[in-house]
Amino acid sequence: MKSMAKEKPEDDKHTDRNFCSCDQKTTCKVESILTIDERGQMVLPKDIRERADIKPGDKLALISWEKEGTICCMALMKAENLSGMVKDVLSPLMNDTGA
Known about the structure:
The protein is of the alpha+beta class.
């Protein structure tokens, strides 16, 4: 997944390193095909880990989309980016409800 930086106000709590501005206009592509071994494990290729700045001990969030009770799509993102993404998605909804 390609991350596109966007300008943020000075008071934004996200650092450039932790901020992801992926949206419907962001370019997505198949980076790699992974094989699941008999223990259910997979290897994230080194070049992908390097480009995504994923280091040993980092936590990844698995995001899934479900259709008719079955997961049809999955994505990985650094867990540290998850709270910012949730905030960005929910903030407009909270403003619309008057909360």
